[in-house]
Amino acid sequence: MPCLNLSTNASLDGVDTSAILSVASKTVARLIGKPEAYVMVVLKGSVPISFGGNEQPAAYGELVSIGGLNPDTNKKLSAAIAEILETKLSVPKSRFFLKFYDTKGSNFGWNGSTF
């Protein structure tokens, strides 16, 4: 049930968001080792964001997962998601933060219950 939530001040007008969602979903599933059928990716654009005192292209993300996260995996995920944002939305890698949450199944609701 990994969920990647990405917010950026970049405009998504005219952007193939389906391609971004697809590659991000596949990347998260592969690196965490979970079936892609359980991966959710949320992408929000044109969000007011200031980073370093300016509003140049930037992004913030949070990745929640029940297991599968560790320092090595997190480093790979950070690099992979930053690469997607840089190539698809022109957000420099240096202007992106990604926060990781490894949670218990009882803390995540799905299908009217919890995991």
TrEMBL record:
It comes from the Eukaryota. One of its GO terms (cellular component) is extracellular space. GO terms for molecular function: phenylpyruvate tautomerase activity. InterPro entries: Macrophage_inhib_fac. This is Macrophage migration inhibitory factor homolog.
